[in-house]
Amino acid sequence: MKKWLTEWKVSPELYKKLSFFALIGLSLxxxxxxxxxxxxxxxxCPTWPNCQGNQLVAQFSFHPMVxxxxxxxxxxxxxxxxxxTAAAFFRKxxxxxxxWLSMGMVGGLxxxxxxxxxxxxxxxxxxxxMAHFLxxxxxxxxxxxxxxxxxxxxxxxxxxVTKEVMWLGRIILGALTFVVVIGTAxxxxxxxxxxxxxxxxxxxxxxxxxxxxxxxxxxxxxTLAMLFLLHQSNAPENVLKRGRALLWLMxxxxxxxxxxxxxxxxxxxxxxxxxxxxxxxxxxxxxxxTLFDRGEMDKGPSDDEPSEITxxxxxxxxx
Length: 319
Fold this sequence. Notes:
The protein is mainly α. The protein contains 10 helices and 2 strands; from the N terminus they run αααααβααααβα. It has helices spanning 2-6, 12-38, 62-90, 96-121, 126-150, 163-189, 205-232, 237-262, 267-289, 311-318; strands at 158-159, 292-293. It has a two-stranded antiparallel ribbon with strand order 1-2.
């Protein structure tokens, strides 16, 4: 067992796949968490870490099983993240930036576990539910940067667009962050509390939803301006395609948002809106990252290259 551990080699291509699976898992947990809230199952397991009292496993009933299933999904996700983190130290060649980013995923997951437990103990108080969702997006941010870096070299990236496009992309990311934060306030003011016992934010739903919609319209306007700049500056075609995809995603997400609001917030449409928010978050992050070219991915290990973790590897990680 020890020999297998010390001789384990992780190629750059394999590590890229592991980082991608971690990104998918961290994204799916957002959707599964939304399902818990929309089925009013947030307090199906009212204690933590046990489901209820001294009982670790949920009783065979709808709400406890929904919440317990989400906890099981989190456990499998944690395993995937831990594998990706361990693999970062066995990757050949070793990359300190990937090791730090993978450790960031672990830190984010631990924070999620703690915050999730507090959220349950606080009976799904809206500020904790909002923070739980936003922390999930931070974890996705870490994972997508990890995947982006794992897909290229560790050389200094080269900007492939004008400075104006780069800065507008960052402004779009900032605007999206504002829209998402206000969206959590809409959720905290709306009917889908996660449990009949959960309190609601003291804001008129119509007013918060209007502010959220105004932010979306502003975001779409910024994206249109970015597409204009991309065309005017003769940006690479692949960047143009990603910009057009962003506009379509925003339009679809906006259409779902308006439809759910004017149809009295049916749970299924709200779930689609949550999934759309996660997808749009990933798309905007990816667009900003790929405004820079990191070159080709590192070559894999040769047969005569030492594979064990050495003191040089650990010192490189810490330096």
